[in-house]
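Appendix B: complex inputs.
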Amino acid sequence: MDTQQLAMLCIPFAGMLGSIALFPVLKAEWWEKHQAMVSFLWAALFLIPYTVLGGARLASEAVAEVIFGDYLAFITLLFGLYCVCGNITVRTNLDGSPRFNVLLLLVGSLAASWIGTTGASMILIRPLIRGNRWRANNVQTFVFFIFLVSNMGGVLTPMGDPPLLMGFMRHIPFFWGLHATPVLLLNLAILLTVYYFLDRKAYTRDLKAGLHPDIVLGGSIIQIRGKHNGIFLIVIIIAVVLSGALPNLGILTGSITIQGDVKMPYTTILEILVILLVSYLAYRTTDRDVREENEFEWGPIKEVAVLFIGIFITMVPALELLQQHGQDMGLTHPWQLFWSTGILSSFLDNTPTYLVFLTACGSMGATSGVATSVGIIGTKMLMAISCGAVFMGANTYIGNAPNFMVKAISESQGVKMPSFFGYMFWAFKYLVPVFLIDTLLFFLG
Amino acid sequence: MGKDFIITISRQFGSGGHSIGKKIAGELDIPFYDQELIDEIAKRSGYDLDFVKAMDEAEVPSGNRFTSFFAGRDESGKTIQDYIFDEECKIIEELADKGSFVVVGRCSDYILRDRENCLDIFTFSSLEKRITRILERYGATEVPIEKRIADKDRRRAARYTYHTKREWGIMSNYDICFDTGRLGVDNCADLVIDHIRKNYGGNDR
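Resulting structure:
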């Protein structure tokens, strides 16, 4: 398929994003009921011309690749984390205070590299919502949570964000991501300071309006129920890491052929089964009132499942375009890679975006840097790709898997999250200046 | 016609300060404020009554503890407790402008420290006597009585110090300190009533 045809086939992807952006604002109730229909409609509007142009075999393989290669593992991981973390409640008697919110954001950001941005998000979003539920002016907390915990914090290790896991599988050392520590610390310092002052101002407005938290009298400062689910959480994290690492060690290297070249590795199947089992166990071994305290419901995970199947399918031509032309973009400086990987990761899946630029860099013939299976890559170039892919996933709700999940959970519990474009405005206002500073300090030259 | 006067009573838990205040107010026919002030604070501050009651019992963010550093503070550094205390100060000052009354607790000796017509009392007693009194009045609970007393007094002291920057129970902060265990609650109340009648000529309401 030529470039022009692929470009035309990107229209349903734009339509899918436009629907997510506009329908909740223009026809909220209708959107609530018809998300699935809209998602499948855009998928069909891509698949029909794709089938006509490329043939039924190509189209069915593309769908199979999306579903069995990406979507099933993606949605199962989200489902597992959603179930397990929904069975843990955390209460504190410091609910909603700006300093405590900063502490939670900091802890989440630092944990994200070790338990994944999705894991950290799912564990901490509910305590954060609970703590800030009494506050009327609380939106900044959840927006910055997406910035920091759901995205930036994951930059240090392959466990943090899926693109880095792909890099690890291409022989980038496990702890290489720690090179990005100064960038992460600088960003955390700037964004947490900005957040603190924003939140303190909002907190003052809340207190003056006569709002107040439910205080927890006596007892310990932090009360946790459903603690045993922490074990299930660890099992999920281990399952994800092993799914990526085992084939590299020559264990469970086989796969099931789904269709044509589309295969599902045994390790992915094992990962899915383990996560589903653990989700079931979490549900069965935890008292119902813990979930009731969490106001646990299926709505948010259903919404993510329905919308992301549409996004994944309609995204196919955009990724094909990137694969065809990524290496021809003439990107030779770290700052160019930082921004191009970042901007594309804001709207596309950041894993294939990262891989395209990683491969392009590997073919540049660098003589010093990190030796990977795709070639030697200059240290600054690799850091630019990693930071771009991980950091700029925070630019939109669809930039990284946990973003939309955090939005959906927050909204289901009464938080008035910004619209699609409203969120992008927040990102433009607070993140872009930080990325410019990163560019000046770390990626120029 | 007597002059206006205000009696503030600070007390160790179980030392009978509340009973003394109630008797004085009854005998002199003047208003008595203890929990009643909480209703008014809730009304004025916009916070709900249960919350204000809970905050009255809650720990204040004091010292170098973790909770103190992470307590919610507005742009001027005020906590929710400060907001409630501000209302408390306003209400007590307004009451003091209107006429005589007896008030128990609420740092009122500090709030009204610049008023000449204020008699500040502190009541204390031996632990044994306080235990006996508390068990008679409130009965036993799951929490050991000594712990209840220690917790309550610790919180009162912390709250007082947090809002006033003074130490709770220091005799120089008060005009009279009664050992109610030795003198008896009624006797203490009578001594105060005599003093008021001699110096203020009774109530002029």
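The interface with chain B takes residues 93-94, 96-100, 103, 200-201, 203-204, 207-210, 212-215, 217, 221 of chain A (CB under 8 Å).
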